[in-house]
Amino acid sequence: MKIKFTIFTVFIIFIFQVPFRAQNKILWGGGLTVHIPDNGFGKFDFGSSYNVGDDFGFATVANPGFGFNFGSLWFYNPRLSLQSELAYSYFPKDKQFWNVQRYGDISVNYQMLNLSAQGNYYFAEGEIRPYLGAVFGIYYLRNKMDFNSTSTASSSDYITNTLHAGYALEFGTSIELTKRTLVNIGLRYTIIPDISSEYTKDGSIKLNPHDKQNHWGLSAKLFFSR
Question: InterPro entries under this entry (predicted)?
């Protein structure tokens, strides 16, 4: 009985150690992302002077943008991996919403730098592996608004710099090109809650009125190892 238990224990250890040794490599890489802002479950009353309705959020104030990222990918076994990422994103303004004529031309953009950790579960083994990932990160948001001078308002710049915790879910597919190279294609939904609003000096324009900076991201990333 003791011999059988020992053999069984060695067998279990062997099962877990083989994929670990085969997969215990760090892959490095990066990629590009297309971002689409989303209104993200919230409602906001911007004020009686703005007829934005109940459906108000990041998609109301910003247009689709882009980003790039760098990071690492480590496989514990063929079904589980951990991923780290440093990413930059840029969103331009929504021209229809930011049309405040008495201020002249308004330049608005939303920039984001984030450092995140991601855990992935793969639904299959082999060269093509669909996966589901959970992401948690720290997001540095730099939201900027510039007013050009007019007869009723002078030129001015307003910038908010804030740090926020955010989280996301990602569904994608990992494609093994070679034993040392793979491509990840993923669709991610990111939630960044509790964006604080600020008013301009005269109190007529609210900065960061969107409350949540939620967005979709479609990315393609290339990873490789030595």
Answer: OMP/PagP_B-barrel (IPR011250)
Q: Buried (b) or exposed (e) across 2-28, using 16+ Cβ within 10 A?
A: eeeeeeeeeeeeeeeeebeeeeeeebe
Between 74 and 16, the higher pLDDT residue: 74
Q: To the nearest 5 percent, what fractions of the chain are helix, strand and coil?
A: 15, 55, 30
Contact present, 186 and 219 (Cβ < 8 Å): yes
Tokens representing 143 are 């939201």
What does the domain layout of the chain look like in residue ranges?
26-224
Write a three-state SS string for 24-49.
Answer: CCEEEEEEEEEEEECCCCCECCCCCC
H/E stretch holding 11 reads helix 2-23
pLDDT tens per residue across span 81-136? 999 999 999 998 755 554 555 555 667 788 999 999 999 999 999 899 999 999 99
Closest CA to 21 of 100, 58, 89, 75: 75
- Cα–Cα distance for residue pair 171/186, rounded to 1 Å: 6
